[in-house]
């Protein structure tokens, strides 16, 4: 399954540069290992998309409540699909 997600520029760039390899999200979409996240760069101040996007694959999910992650949230390990 593919999920289109708004991503703020500072996080988008770190994922693009392969420095950030995880996403912390509210699990309101029933994320699964193998899903594709289409990250859409978004400026929250102006509420506008930049037009840049990046596809990543979910490789592991840690569900809350565990290790400080709240119930209903998850941390997903991600890998750039271009890798």
Portion in strands = over 45%
Look at the structure and name the CATH superfamily.
Hypothetical protein
Q: Distance between the terminal alpha carbons, to the nearest Å? A: 19 Å
> Rg from C-alpha positions?
13 Å
Order of helices and strands: EHEEEE
Q: What name does the CATH topology carry?
A: Archaeosine Trna-guanine Transglycosylase, Chain: A, domain 4
Q: Overall pLDDT, averaged? A: 97
Shape, per Cα inertia axes? globular
Please give the CATH class.
Answer: Mainly Beta
Q: How many helical stretches?
A: 1
The CATH architecture can be named as Roll
Global structural class: mainly beta
Protein architecture, described:
This protein is mostly beta strands and 83 residues long. The chain has a single domain (2-80), classed as Hypothetical protein (Archaeosine Trna-guanine Transglycosylase, Chain: A, domain 4, Roll). The protein is 10% helix and 52% strand. The protein contains 1 helix and 5 strands; from the N terminus they run βαββββ. It has one helix spanning 9-16, and strands spanning 2-7, 22-26, 36-43, 48-63, 73-80. Strands 1-3-4-5-2 form a 5-stranded mixed β-sheet. β3 and β4 form a beta hairpin. The longest helix has 8 residues, at 9-16. The radius of gyration is 13 Å and the shape is globular. The two termini are 19 Å apart.
């Amino acid at each position: 399954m593919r999920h289109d997600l708004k991503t703020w520029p500072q996080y988008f760039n770190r994922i693009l540069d392969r420095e950030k390899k995880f996403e912390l999200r509210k699990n309101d979409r029933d994320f699964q290992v193998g899903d594709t996240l289409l990250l859409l760069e978004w400026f929250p101040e102006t509420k506008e998309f930049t037009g840049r996007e990046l596809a990543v694959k979910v490789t592991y999910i840690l569900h809350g409540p565990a290790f400080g992650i709240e119930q209903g949230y998850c941390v997903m390990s991600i890998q750039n699909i271009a890798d």
